[in-house]
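Let's practice the habit of predicting before peeking. Look at the sequence and jot down your guess about where helices and strands might fall. Then scroll down.
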Amino acid sequence: MNKEENNLIGSIRTPKAVIFDTDNTLYSYLPAHKKATRAVEEKVVKILGISEETFRSTFEDARQEIKDALGATASSHSRLLYFQRTIEKLGLGTQILMALDLEQTYWRTFLSNCKLFPGVLDFIQLLKSKGVITVNITDLTAQIQFRKLVYFGLDNFFDYVVTSEEAGIDKPDRKPFEVAFAKIKVSPEDIWMIGDSPSNDMAGAHNFGLVKVQKVHMGSAIGSSKEMQPDIVFTEYSKLFKYF
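Done guessing? Here is the structure:
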């Protein structure tokens, strides 16, 4: 460990609570998403006899339409709404069973292709052994985010979970953090926020003076503004052990 690392460790306060993001922080989102999307495409092409290109362009239009209409809310991420609107834009009306089937196909395939980043569980277990409160603040609806945590076997390792469905709005809005603070009753200056997104996780943490800890990996970037600049950057969870 060099002098710079020693100075950094000495300047970072040990937390009483650690907040984690979920997607792209506990696991890599993109590989699972690609396989899940492919499974849905194959099913739609087979059922409806349309081209993959037609489905993809219609789906993207439907997805953007939902996001524009709903803004930064949990339901704006709903695959069920995306598939419902896609089918409607294909001129088939609201095909309830088909929309439900496509949503289940997506999430079933997604979960079966998810893998935790190395060291996640070991790090959370370290926090628990030190008496540090563990919290998960995550965008999207509670049902699917809870399913992810159960699938990963992490459901008993988080003391509290706050979804943007519960808070009413996505990060970086103050509300999800305020809901978490009310549950854990720990001062913000004693809390770390671990996430991957400069604009959502780091900026959200900055609003309250939390220690900003960014997980970086392929495809991720560090923000340029003060609000998005992390206090700690790490690639592997094992690199965080030295702070404890």
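How did you do? Strands lie at 17-20, 133-138, 160-163, 191-195, 211-215, 232-234.
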